[in-house]
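Hello K.,

You asked for the raw outputs rather than the summary table, so here they are, unedited. I folded two proteins back to back in the same session to keep the settings identical. This is the first:
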Amino acid sequence: VQLQACGGGLVQAGGSLRLSCTSSGSIDSINEMGWYRQAPGNQRELVATITTGGVTKYGDSVKGRFTISSDNAFTTVLLRMTSLRLEDTAVYYCTAADFHPRGIDRSWGQGTQFTVSS
């Protein structure tokens, strides 16, 4: 599975931005897509994920501010981010996962830097 992210860059605090991620390759088995992020000195943390059934999950720090959605084909996910804070600054990683009886196969995109300025 290959993941191509679009978006990122620099935005002012309080502003909004969108990130998108498109999957390609062996995508038939993907049943979850989403975003994680990692700030300097911190562990990678959940931002938001969505399943093929439309079930969403959000990290506590972004609930109520970020919204994740997918297209009907479940090949592209869109992350709408509002009320951005300085602490949202991080490298954002797109992810796609195949949850199966033997475990989880997860793929990662290269990461896109996103900086919130004051």
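The second followed immediately with the same parameters:
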Amino acid sequence: VQLQACGGGLVQTGGSLRLSCTASGSTFDSTVIHWYRQVPGKQREFVATIYRSGSTKYAASAKGRFTISRDNAKNTVYLQMNSLKPEDSADYYCVTNTDLVRAYWGQGTLVTVSS
């Protein structure tokens, strides 16, 4: 499965964005998908995971504000981000478990939250 993230942009504090992660490949509906983010010069950090069952996991910083979901018919995972803060500004990446093992991050999508 190969993933492509998009949907980033510039938003004001308190605003919302929805990121999309579109996959190619026939096994998408059984693939665990993770969102990570990275600020230049800082370590990449976990944001959210969605399992093939639809169950989810969130970082403490995302819980209550972000929602990860999947539409298997569209081979897409979404990250709905609400109540955005300047500290949410980062490059956002969607990856599979295989990508994590291989340390393959692909091209992220940039989110900038202005204060």
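The mean pLDDT is 94.

Happy to rerun anything if the numbers look odd on your end.

Regards,
P.
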